[in-house]
Amino acid sequence: MPTTTAHPCPPLADPALIAEFRIAPVAVISDNLHRLPGASGLLPQHKGGVMVGTALTVKTRPGDNLAIHKALDLVQPGHVLVVDGGGDLSRALIGEIICAIAQSRGAAGIVIDGAIRDVATIRAGDFPCFARGINHLGPYKDGPGHINVPVTVGGLVVQPGDIVVGDDDGVTAFPQAGAAELLQAVRQQEQREAEILASIREGRYVGAYAK
């Protein structure tokens, strides 16, 4: 019989660090990760707003959400459910009810490499939800699945405990180790970009390759 295996959740990321990344654009974070890590094709489905939290990962077979239901029992405030559904769009893995449960338990958002449904309700709300697509067909609940294992969403490998950030540009993730140094690089790039924009407004801009 198919089973769902669950491993313990790694420690949640430092709330102070989470707060700092809340004002860090995903595009700038991506630039400072050598533009390599980043989920492709997973777009925000909610009304808007930034998602930042600690990854609670789920790997499930296409079209089956039993492992997602079991992962909800492990959610702590600040978790982002990161679900590897193999990119399959044949059936929705979550909808309004799972989003409501996750939000009520303090989750910071959900990332689904697969389909969702009840989109009108999700889009009207501010609970962060990123997904590959939409399908009204409901999921199976047979398993198997795995919780808190390495997963891949949109080509991005996410480890349990990684910091996950999402905004209107998409989703990226990175290990807690080194996050403080990453944040410093992000702030430096933001300052450089602010200076470029100021030079454009003031008529001083001479081109990216000018010396």
From TrEMBL:
Which cofactors are required for activity? Mg(2+); a divalent metal cation
> Which SUPFAM superfamilies does the record associate with it?
RraA-like
- InterPro entries named among the record's database cross-references: RraA/RraA-like, RraA/RraA-like_sf
Membrane-crossing ranges are none
Query: What domain of life?
Result: Bacteria
Q: Which residues bind Mg(2+)?
A: D118
Q: Which GO terms describe its molecular function?
A: metal ion binding
Q: Does the keyword Magnesium apply?
A: yes
Q: Where does substrate bind?
A: G95, E96, I97, I98, R117
Q: Provide this UniProt record's keywords sorted from A to Z.
A: Magnesium, Metal-binding
| PANTHER family, per the entry | 4-HYDROXY-4-METHYL-2-OXOGLUTARATE ALDOLASE 3-RELATED
This chain belongs to the protein called Putative 4-hydroxy-4-methyl-2-oxoglutarate aldolase
